[in-house]
């Protein structure tokens, strides 16, 4: 079959790389793609929000399956647009993607169905939000209700920071309309774990665990980013934690969405906090995580096209996911200044070093071809350097060694991705 992947980041590169391994696939297209994805796919200049153009392209080119990588088009209803044209597409419909599209919706869902999460209040009036803060316990967490590129969460250590956070989100509109409504919730302490899952509306199949590093600087300092690196599996995600989550969180969420008339088909990303009271949901995403995908898919044994189709067809109960008994670490190479101001168009060298190395991967997040054919930087997060190893320590050593294989001006990385494993 022919497959179309929608998106342009490291997540979509990892998906394209995995799809390319399927013997069932004869051709891959990616809209709009990037310079790394071009190795596996024909990149077409259609934006992820251009639904009419995407569906027309899929029909004209007899695309057998379209895979939606990004959150914006999912929340905007791209799956509904494809289905209306009789096209097969992997991802949740608009009424299910609201699980990520509205923090207020997801918190209300968890409250209604008894899914463990932090205590919270929702506000659409900044004055009432500020009034609430006067009696709230600090530290506290402020979340923009809508999509904010993974950056719309503010952890406030004291009352003044919290007041400033409300102003930033609701009055200054740093994240636009995403901050029209905000969720204020209790600050939870514990280990964060990311768990991706495939869902077909009824059945949930859990992928291997991972852990992201959101902050820009070492020691989890600096601004929130889309993610500076990740490792898989998480040693803190024990069999006991898994058992609890399967019973009280994963299936409960899928069943809740079905009961609400919003059956979910696609990927649910469970962002978890392992608290002293047990695992609780930090957030849901309605798609693959980035950069979690870059460590999860290299460890996955299944033909991913089979799994995608099972989610679309409602036959996921017939599939058992299999993962390698090893570990993977991804270190993001960013442009210095990310996530605020950074330069683009800088030449990248050394990418060819990954072609002959088994167990080493470079996933392009923000790259493009210059007019002379040279691959140059085209974003804040430029590359995700991923390496496998027999365990997390070896995988981390391999990944950091591989970050030296590739060079570009203003290259920046965190130096402590996976450092938590030293505490085991």
Features:
424 residues; alpha+beta; Rossmann fold; Dna Ligase, domain 1; D-amino Acid Aminotransferase, Chain A, domain 1; 4 domains; nine-stranded antiparallel beta sheet; five-stranded parallel beta sheet; 12 helices; globular; metal ion binding; purine biosynthesis; nucleotide-binding; PRibGlycinamide_synth; ATP binding
> Span between N and C termini?
45 Å
- Helix content estimate: 25-40%
Low-confidence stretches: none
The oligomeric state of the chains shown is single chain
GO molecular function: ATP binding; metal ion binding; phosphoribosylamine-glycine ligase activity
Enzyme class: ligase
Pathway: Purine metabolism; IMP biosynthesis via de novo pathway; N(1)-(5-phospho-D-ribosyl)glycinamide from 5-phospho-alpha-D-ribose 1-diphosphate: step 2/2
Biased composition (Basic and acidic residues): 211-220
Write the layout of secondary structure elements.
Blueprint (H helix, E strand, L loop, with lengths): L1 E6 L2 H10 L7 E6 L9 E2 L7 H10 L4 E4 L2 H6 L1 H7 L4 E2 L3 H8 L1 H11 L6 E4 L2 H8 L6 E5 L8 E4 L2 H13 L10 E5 L4 E10 L3 E9 L2 E3 L3 E4 L4 E4 L6 H21 L5 E11 L2 E8 L7 H4 L7 H10 L13 E9 L24 E5 L2 E3 L5 E3 L3 E9 L2 H11 L8 E2 L12
Parallel strand pairs: 1-2, 1-4, 2-3, 4-5
Antiparallel strand pairs: 6-9, 7-8, 7-9, 10-11, 10-15, 11-14, 12-13, 14-17, 15-16, 17-21, 17-22, 18-21, 19-20
How would you sum up this structure, described in words?
The chain has 424 residues and is an alpha+beta fold. The longest helix has 21 residues, at 239-259. A hairpin with a 2-residue loop joins β15 (265-275) and β16. The protein is globular and about 60 Å long. 28% of the residues lie in helices and 28% in strands. It has four domains: 2-98, Rossmann fold (3-Layer(aba) Sandwich), CATH 3.40.50; 119-186, ATP-grasp fold, A domain (Dna Ligase, domain 1); 191-318, D-amino Acid Aminotransferase, Chain A, domain 1 (2-Layer Sandwich), CATH 3.30.470; 327-423, Alpha-Beta Complex (Glycinamide Ribonucleotide Synthetase, Chain A, domain 4). The strands form five sheets. Strands 10, 11, 14, 15, 16, 17, 18, 21 and 22 form a nine-stranded antiparallel beta sheet that branches. A five-stranded parallel beta sheet has the order 3-2-1-4-5, with helices on both faces. Its EC number is 6.3.4.13. It is an enzyme of class 6 (ligase). This is Phosphoribosylamine--glycine ligase. GO terms for molecular function: ATP binding; metal ion binding; phosphoribosylamine-glycine ligase activity.
